[in-house]
Amino acid sequence: MKIGSARDDALYMEELSQKDTPVHRLDPRAKIIVNLFFIFTVLSFNRYEISALVTFFAFPLFLLVSGDLPAGYLTKKLLLISPVVVLIAVFNPVFDRETAFILAGAEISAGWVSFFSILIRFFLTAGSILILIASTGFYKVCMALERIGVPSLFVMQLLFLYRYIFVLLDEGARMVRAHALRSFSDRHMKIKTFGSLLGNLLLRTVDRADRIHSAMLARGFDGSVTFNRRIKFRTADAFFVVFWPALFILMRRYNFSELIGSYFLRIF
Question: Does residue 232 come out as left (phi exceeding 0), alpha (psi in the -120 to 50 range) or beta?
């Protein structure tokens, strides 16, 4: 059942964030700062850059290995959403037909180069965010954002969105299960039935949200979220914040892929 699978995925990501590894022990603020620096650096390259971007895979690979995170599972999640990016980039080879270079006698257009460049940027940036959530947990990420100085209204929206997505998934799973029990199958849901279930889900969601809001007000909710947990910025966090951005600047300044390739060509 797809709704149940989505809920299991969200719970599994929280389970991954409970591990005790050097990456998990890092201050969430340090991880957010380095991730933002990483994303901005990757996005700063021109649209035809490929070789220089390859070296940036060192950062997510380091986090995957140090954090003992399942690379296959996270890659699968990236591949699930990659068709959206492919759909955006697929028109580049159609409109940008200028020859970029010749490979083994075949002319490679600039459109194909920018197509693969977009895909690499997607895997780097979306992958780093996915690893951040898997190694930190969404609650700690929200707490770190609030401590960094992100407006509390934005943090609260993120926190509520994540908290109540489980409520929505539970409601949806119950409705799909009820439909399957009454129709003896959940594989051939008609569009008319799906529309009816969707409208019913909306009404149930509004009703549930109203009850949750009333319960929160009864418990003293005043429109703000307070994080009571303390986090300490240690020497390892400072090293992480200094080392990786410095390396990103070097990788942005020098094309290490070309330098390594030139070195081996001189040897052989």
Answer: beta
**Would you tell me how many other CB atoms lie within 10 Å of the CB of residue 160?**
15
Q: How far from each other are the two terminal CA atoms of the chain, in whole angstroms?
A: 55
Here the contacts of 84-90 (C-beta below 8 Å, separation 24 or greater) are 85/118, 85/119, 85/122, 86/119, 88/118, 89/114, 89/115, 89/118, 89/119, 90/115
CA atoms within 13 A on the CB side of 76: 5
Paired sense of beta strands 99-103 and 106-109, if any: antiparallel
Neighbours of 264 (CB within 10 A): 8
**108-139: pLDDT as tens digits:** 888 899 999 999 999 999 999 999 999 998 88
In this prediction, what percent of the chain has a pLDDT beyond 70?
Answer: 94
Number of neighbours of residue 200 by Cβ within 10 angstroms: 12
Q: What global pTM score does this model have?
A: 0.82
